[in-house]
Here is the input.
Amino acid sequence: MMVFSRLLLPAARLSSSRLLLAAALTFGTAALLSVATSSVAMAQDTGIPVEIRVMDTGGAPIATAVVRHPEEQERHPVNTITGAYTTDVLFLPDGSEKLFIKGLDLEFEVSAPGFVTANVRHIVRKRRNVIAVTLETMELNLLDDLEEPVIQFGRDRPIDGATPADPAQ
Here is the structure.
C-alpha cells in the first residue's frame, strides 16, 4: 500500500530515485501482465493447416469453387484469385471443433458451377498438406432436342379426343 500511496503524490515531491523505482514497478507489472496474457493465448491448441487448391483442367484457379467436409454443414468458398482454401479445424454442427492432427484421415467435397463435383481424401502430415484438386467441366449439349416429360392423369384426354387415356399406363 505504501508504494501506491507514493505514486499518488505529485512527481515534484518524489525524489528521482523513488520516481525511477515507481516507474520501474509500473512497467514491470505491465510487462508481467502482457506475458501472462500472451501465454494464455499461446496455450490454445491449433491444428495442422491443410490447403486445398482448386483448378480447372488448364491449371487456372476456379474462383467460384466451394469446399465442404461431410461432417460440416457449411460450404467454404475458395480465394477468388488463388483458388485456395486453408483451414486447420472443422466446426461441427453440435458446436464442437475438430482440430487437424497428424495421421487424421480427411475427406472433402469440392464443387463449382459448371464443373463435375470431386471427392478427395487426404491423410494429414506434419507439414506440406497441400491438396491439388482438378475439376473437369460438365459436358452439356444444349443443341439436342430435349423432350419434356409427359405425365398423364386419368382425366386427361388425348389430343384427338377419341378416348380418355388409360390410367393404368
In short: The longest strand covers residues 50-56. Residues 2-43 form one domain. Residues 16-43 form the longest helix (28 residues).
